[in-house]
């Protein structure tokens, strides 16, 4: 299943993370994103998912990399905020700007920290 994720940093270098509110990975912290619908481009899906999960409007940048977890093939893109106000929504239980210390403290989705370390 094709999915997308957004790597978004603020002006202080913190990374935008959401806490998954539903399976898969309920309760774990991850990049905002989700499934690409049949009629969407990756960019369309990423803008929709970030808006639904965080309330933020983004501009999608370059592909950062891909990761396969089970039957999910996730295409992660760099992005930056162009509007909106941070608030969790849709299937996100919470949304935060995470520091490097937070990344090693929070329970992250499988493979996320290794993926970020490789960027």
From TrEMBL:
Residues 1-119 form the Nudix hydrolase domain. Transmembrane segments: none annotated. It holds the Pfam family NUDIX. GO terms for molecular function: hydrolase activity. SUPFAM superfamilies: Nudix. Signal peptide: none annotated. Keywords: Hydrolase. PROSITE patterns: NUDIX (PS51462), NUDIX_BOX (PS00893). Gene3D superfamilies: Nucleoside Triphosphate Pyrophosphohydrolase. Belongs to the Nudix hydrolase family. This is NUDIX domain-containing protein. The lineage of its organism: Bacteria, Bacillati, Actinomycetota, Actinomycetes, Streptosporangiales.
């Amino acid at each position: 299943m094709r999915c997308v994720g957004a790597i978004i940093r603020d002006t202080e270098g913190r990374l935008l993370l959401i806490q998954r509110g539903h399976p898969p990975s309920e309760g774990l912290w991850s990049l905002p994103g989700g499934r690409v619908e049949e009629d969407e481009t990756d960019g369309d899906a990423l803008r929709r998912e970030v808006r639904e999960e965080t309330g933020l409007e983004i501009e999608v940048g370059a592909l950062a990399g891909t990761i396969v977890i089970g039957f999910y093939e996730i295409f992660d893109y760099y992005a930056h905020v162009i509007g909106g106000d941070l608030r969790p929504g849709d299937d996100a239980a919470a949304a935060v700007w995470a520091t490097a210390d937070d990344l090693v403290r929070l329970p992250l989705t499988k493979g996320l920290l290794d993926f970020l370390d490789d960027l």
